[in-house]
Amino acid sequence: MKKTKILVVGNGMVGHKFIENMLNSPQAETFDIVTFAEEPRLAYDRVQLSSYFSGSTAADLMLTSEDYYRSNGVHYVLNEQVTEIQPENNCVITASGRKETYDKLVLATGSYPFVPPLPGREQPHCLVYRTIEDLEAITESAAQSKIGVVVGGGLLGLEAANALKNLGLDTHVVEFAPRLMAVQLDEGGGLVLRKKIEKLDVKVHTEKNTQEIVAGEKCRYRMNFADGSYLETDMILFSAGIRPRDELARNASLSVGERGGIVVNNFCQTSVANIYAIGECALWSGRIYGLVAPGYQMAKVAVSHITGGADQFVGADMSTKLKLLGVEVASIGDAHARTPGALSYVYQDGINEIYKRLVLSPDGKKLIGSVLVGDTEVYGNLLQICLNGMDVPEAPEQLIVPASDGQAASGLGVDALPETATICSCHDVSKGTICCAVRDGATTIGAIKSMTKAGTGCGGCVALATQVMNSELTKLGVEVNTDLCEHFPFTRQELFHLVRVEKIQTFDALIEKHGRGLGCDICKPTVASILASCWNGFIMKNELAPLQDTNDYFMANMQKNGTYSIVPRIAGGEITPDKLIVLGQVGKKYNLYTKITGGQRIDLFGAQLDDLPAIWQELVDAGFETGHAYGKSVRTVKSCVGSTWCRYGVLDSVGMAIAIEERYKGLRAPHKLKFAVSGCTRECAEAQSKDVGVIATETGWSLYVCGNGGMKPRHADLFATGLDDATLLKYIDRFLMFYVRTADRLQRTSVWMDNLEGGLKYLKNVVIDDKLGIGADLENDMQRVVDAYQCEWKSTIGDAEKLKRFRTFVNSEKRDNTVVFVEERNQIRPANEDELVRFVTSTELETA
Amino acid sequence: MNAAELREIWVDVCESHELLPELGARALVNGEQVAIYRVRDNLYAIDAIDPFSKAAVLSRGIVGDLKGQLVVASPIYKQHFNLQTGACLEDNTVSVKTYPVREVGGRIQIGM
Questions:
Q1: Is A266 helix (H, G, I), strand (E, B) or coil?
Q2: What's the ipTM?
Q3: Range of the domain at A179
Q4: pLDDT tens-place string over residues A786-800
Q5: pTM of whole model > 0.80?
């Protein structure tokens, strides 16, 4: 069967979304997809563009990859602009003269930044803010500038101002209208936003109409305004709105709007039935939608129409919540109260600079709009009430005034929401979908995230999604049992708290006071870990010994045949030839299998219990310490060779890796922890796959957290940038201790963070902004653990009584006859079951 | 003294103080590897070989109680064995051998 050929012009966010939806449709097999991109790369996240200035790379922003397109059979051509459509021939012509036919054409050409037609606008340091190439030009220009001006005080203009500020420029915003964000905010909101932004040392000039750009006296340029005033600056960034890219359609005589935009119907079809337009280039009902969510909806509608579905685009909600220059801003529905007879409630807190406005229908029963500046916590709640046409409470002001008992205003509970209410608008997840996931067994927000994708986009809905989940759990009568085990009716976090507050030193004291029974293999090691995290006592102490897993107890890793492997610490992966030789000699002497680990260490396998002390005596004599490979604790800090040797290195990654490993070695935690330090953004140490990853940049260290490899790999999140050594260690101290204090048993850092209400943002609040006021406390706790460190093996081999534990038999010098090795590739390995039977039979025959 | 006790041969394995509370020890008795435990002043002895992994590791498991039964957890695949009966809690078709054990004159003895 001949496949239908779909040609997508433009590979921006919406063009890519269309392709992704096509590939996910059940009929994907019956289509051939071709896409042209005029940019040198496939789709990236333009919404997060400003993060490019806080450490994200072009690679971080990518929404897809060439591999993904290739493996799904999507043909793509980069750096190729389509210059002409010939609707009568069903083909397009590109800049290089290529002709490509289609059955269905999809225009996702997006928009371009509007630059007002002023004299002098086409000078070298007059730039725009839309593509990664633009950002590169801005960075370059900023390096040669001291003062920067953004023309345009709208949403994008303030994003751009943030970028200039991050680049270290003295930043100004010039706006034609009397206030900032005139589209989204009312006068009161605009004023509060302006005050907050000016506090951040960004100068705001409103009601300024730029006439021309001429050579400056003190700076590169001078901007002359209509009122006779002027402003000198070294660079200018235009962010005065967008215009649809409709020239292709216009030249092919498709219908376009008077003020631009390709006219589409509810199915996103243009005036030519087999040509669609989606995203910012499309004009629906006289309106251009300059946000990504409506663009995604159009992509969905176009896919539905092409594949025979019935979805329609009937407009989109333009409510937004965002953080501009660190200021929270949100706007819902009719923010300006333009509806005739609309009523308003306004709450203003002049001290904390918070502004909230509710716009109600003339009968005062429905919420039709809202403006929030400085505190947007109630946004999710208000948006739901507005979108679902719900009645507001008796006293509507309760929705925005802070409750007097210190609790956040609750508004209407989630139970009042209809099943169809959209909770996560990034991934279009409804309340019903979340409830369904709960009925299918999800009991944590982490599970909700992985089953429904809710909360994995911007993260703004996590609090609301959690409320929906909890309410559904309550309805199902599911009492979520978070007890550690049958012996302790507490979570690990609660036990940690009890141990710390009551200064409990032993398992017996804890179980007597707060538990029942003898304990088990779940609670004993957990409590041992808590005691170690709190007091870092010697794990071989008699009262702690019975609590340890065999690995912790014998300080080695038990393998499948009951023998152990040994991993000495090789901090940062740096080792002298002499020490390498010692490892070789020990391996040879005790006939151990040797293997290089993923954490840049050497693992020695096949040691029998009674050999461990002798092996460690030799290792300790040679200056080795235990590597804690057996513990739920800090394992390794992987590093690349860094600036010392590498021609690309920016900072001394090995030195930092060793410093970090020496500081945190032996720290007991709810789960093993892996770290890495890379000396430049080439990232050879793979720091972004670690619990704690550090990457050197020109401006200092970038810190990444909560990544992991393993069964469910997860990229780490960027946590902070431009850190000096001391601040880096301070943040890691706080991060680790907060994790150790609050995580559940065997909960990795990634899952732990996903389950924190507020996720990454909350974690930053706690660690960077010290919102809970526990920063110093966490650092002190960490210092106590660091100070109490001792090499467990060094302490053990000096203690004859403890060494008795390593005897194989209490009554015999014989070795364990169940341990049998065979040779493979010139080393030992455990005999498998077949080999074991043969071996035993033949020895029995010999003795018989 | 009944017939069963008559037939038993008690093998001396170690001094009492060498067997610490809730910490297993391993002894070699007539070529058999035996795991011995002291829990709240009572003694227990079972086969040290874990039937699932075939490795002699049960003396190195964590001792505790589950639903009222005294158990040891295998350090390899984490199954639990009843210290008094040898029965596996996770799989009722599997059990390990138990041995009589006693403390006489400051010595621990295993009956064969």
A1: coil
A2: 0.92
A3: 126-240
A4: 998 889 999 899 888
A5: no
